[in-house]
């Protein structure tokens, strides 16, 4: 023992300190696990997190962790780049109108086969390989999503008119993690492509989810697009309406923000926009008091 009152150096000390640090992390997470256990969290999966192998792996780890501590994750995925690549392989030139893909009859066949036949089973395989028990669903199954044409100029792009969550609830009760492709049965009997952000928000509302989380390729919502220091950590729905009306939000972010507003106004506790390029973004949001990204609520949260 030294005269400083501290014990002498030992080679095991760094390892013990690291282990104690891990224990503190679990201790901090415990209140959130207690509060969120048994609750549904809908996650919109897209952007870099879908294509970068390291991010894919940590995303699957995060989903498995949520599942094993008793939280009920539901994944709604996008697939725009995959669809564009599949169209290119078939010699189909993408056409866009006001930022949305014009989806004719030939294109909707590519969309359906890519979303339901390629992307969805790949995500299911990925999550299952990391320990959770996932199963694939598309919005046609169980009439989960019903839609009508959003705009005749867009062809088979749908606007959701009804959500039937029965199949998803049944899968959750059996212990599965549903992975949902954003397709819908049209009121006219046709198949429609849905905006994945909108589908995630609508499904979260129908399931009475505690949270809806959007993984994106930005840190969150900025008050000033040109100022990285203007990241908004928390915002309430009335202020978000004003921000959209002011034109401060980028055009690409607006549909996501509108889906956040609709979900929260429809009863979802909180909506979150997270940087999916950050490893373990989901765990950082769900299990830490600070959280990350931008949180949207109806009223201020202490």
Structural features, described:
The chain is of the alpha/beta class. The protein has a single domain, classed as Acetylglutamate kinase-like (Carbamate kinase, 3-Layer(aba) Sandwich). The chain contains 9 helices and 16 strands. The chain has helices spanning 13-36, 53-68, 80-89, 105-129, 166-173, 196-207, 237-246, 254-265, 281-287, and strands at 40-45, 72-77, 96-97, 100-101, 134-138, 145-149, 158-163, 177-181, 183-186, 191-193, 211-216, 221-222, 231-232, 234-236, 270-275, 294-297. It has an 8-stranded mixed β-sheet, sandwiched between helices.
What is the rounded distance between the termini?
A: 47 Å
Average residue-wise pLDDT: 87
User: What is the helix/strand order?
Assistant: HEHEHEEHEEEHEEEHEEEEHHEHE
Q: Tell me what portion of residues adopts beta-strand conformation.
A: 15-25%
The tally of structural domains comes to 1
Q: Determine the CATH superfamily.
A: Acetylglutamate kinase-like
- Total helical segments: 9
Low-confidence stretches: 1-7, 16-22
Label the CATH architecture.
3-Layer(aba) Sandwich
Q: Over the alpha carbons, how many angstroms does the gyration radius reach?
A: 21 Å
Annotation keywords:
alpha/beta, 302 residues, eight-stranded mixed β-sheet, 9 helices, Carbamate kinase, four-stranded mixed β-sheet
In a few lines, what is going on in this structure?
With 302 residues, the protein is α/β, with parallel strands linked by helices. 41% of the residues lie in helices and 22% in strands. It starts with 12 loop residues before the first helix and ends in a 5-residue tail after the last strand.
């Amino acid at each position: 023992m030294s005269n400083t009152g501290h014990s002498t150096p030992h080679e095991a000390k760094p390892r013990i300190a690291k282990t104690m640090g891990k224990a503190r992390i679990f201790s901090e997470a415990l209140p959130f696990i207690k509060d969120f256990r048994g609750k549904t969290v809908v996650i919109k999966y897209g952007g870099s997190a879908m294509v970068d192998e390291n991010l894919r792996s940590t995303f699957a780890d995060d989903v498995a962790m949520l599942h094993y501590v008793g939280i009920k994750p539901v994944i709604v995925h996008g697939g725009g780049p995959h669809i564009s690549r599949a169209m290119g392989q078939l010699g189909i030139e993408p056409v866009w109108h006001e930022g949305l893909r014009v989806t004719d009859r030939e294109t909707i066949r590519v969309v359906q086969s890519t979303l339901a036949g390629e992307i969805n089973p790949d995500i299911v395989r990925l999550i299952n390989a990391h320990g959770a028990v996932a199963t694939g669903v598309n919005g046609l199954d169980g009439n989960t999503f019903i839609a009508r044409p959003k705009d005749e100029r867009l062809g088979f792009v749908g606007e959701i008119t009804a959500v039937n969550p029965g199949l998803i609830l049944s899968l959750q009760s059996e212990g599965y993690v549903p992975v949902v492709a954003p397709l819908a049965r049209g009121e006219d009997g046709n198949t429609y492509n849905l905006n994945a952000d909108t589908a995630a928000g609508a499904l979260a509302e129908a399931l009475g989810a505690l949270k809806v989380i959007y993984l994106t390729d930005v840190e969150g919502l900025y008050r000033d697009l040109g100022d990285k220091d203007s990241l908004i950590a928390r915002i309430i729905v009335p202020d978000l309406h004003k921000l959209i009306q002011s034109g401060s939000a980028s055009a690409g972010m607006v549909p996501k923000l509108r889906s956040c507003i609709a979900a929260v106004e429809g009863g979802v506790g909180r909506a979150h926009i997270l940087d999916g390029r950050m490893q373990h973004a989901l765990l950082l949001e769900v299990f830490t008091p600070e959280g990350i990204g931008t949180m949207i609520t109806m009223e201020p949260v202490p």
